[in-house]
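Go through the following before class.
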Amino acid sequence: MSRFVDRVTIHVTAGNGGHGCSSVHREKFKPLGGPDGGNGGNGGSVRLVVDPQVHTLLDFHFRPHAKGTNGKPGMGDNRDGATGEDLILKVPDGTVVLDADGKILADLVGAGTTFDAAQGGRGGLGNASLASRARRAPGFALLGEEGQSRDLVLELKSVADVGLVGFPSAGKSSLVSVLSAAKPKIADYPFTTLVPNLGVVQAAGDIFTIADVPGLIPGASMGRGLGLEFLRHLERCAVLAHVVDCATLEPGRDPVSDIDALEAELAAYRPALAADHGLGDLADRPRVVILNKIDVPDAAELADLVEPELVQRGWPVYRISAVSRTGLRELTFALAKMVADYRAAQPKAQPRRQVIRPVAVDDSGFTVVPDPAVEGGFIVHGARPERWIAQTQFENDEAVGYLADRLNRLGVEDELKRLGAQPGAPVTIGAMTFDWEPTTPMGEDVPLTGRGTDVRLDRSERIGAAERKQARRARRSRFEDGDVHE
């Protein structure tokens, strides 16, 4: 038998971006035809999409890990890498997405609603895209970014028009089974229903959905019984129907006290998303009282006693029997009318507009703060500096010089000077810590040297081939001069 799962934790990881390619075009009679390295492809994202054919989060319970496809690296001859395919995860209508801290990220209502669970990493630029006036033939390329990775909590809140509330064994499941084609489990012991049962009801030309919310007992809003697990399924119900067992033999129970106890639990529960749906608080939803099991003689007499008091509260009261199907036709049409009237009275939902937040004039895009763990050190925060660090090949001096130019143009160098950074001060950006050298000229035209090198960052003490050749010529010249003097 399939299980109903309405809360899961998933681990989503988007695909990584492909690395850019560092290549030089070569052909006959064109040994150096210029840079032609292509860009890496973007990584595939992970998206949640509402599918009306999905009714539970069971698949995520058994397969909680989801990963997008990586982008392909760029290639020579200006060939860009292929973009990774997005991973589409189908979720039920009414799924709420929360982060690990419990903050609501999205409320997925309506077929086709989409939420980007994890954003794919950007592909790195090839050296053809990095060519400029200063660097006509870059000997490096940018690395692809890693895809976003995070843990999300998916919480399902059933989308039903009518919510049936009542004590265990009040006949809620039986009512759903006779009003719709749903076939829930029915038995004569408490807490038979352990999961919400959803059914579709037709009344002439009107169609509405009805849900049985199980496990409501006094103290449910505080965590007793099963009520706290399923009270959230009432948040989207337009009409709440009290199903009362008029034939109960338990001492100290009567229909009025049962309704008062459940009303206290509904008033104590605070829906997190009530304002988002425009349905108001649960205490303001229309009510209807269903006196069930009136086919029992004693139950009919009890219904006669309590009905006047319930009518005085302004709630419509209907007597039914789910077994003999007495009063079901009148109840069905009444519920359909209440749902239609309440939905029509609510303000129409305004389509969500795209929110554009321009960058403030004084926003530099980064911040520099003293490093609390290192004396004299600094930490640079910012999306762009941290992304540039992740894209840099630190074994390539030319790539490091390019990074220095980018940071200088952003203003990191000036900000470090303003804060009093001393030469050699450790500066941390993202996962990289380096010694700051303010004497390094950045932002200037780069002298042409070998590919993959930068004269400003000459970290090797090894004598190069050009220096050895020049020294050999100098020694030969001195030797020849000595022969002449002799």
Observations:
- The longest helix spans residues 465-485.
- The two ends are 108 Å apart (CA to CA).
- Residues 34 and 274 are 61 Å apart (CA to CA).
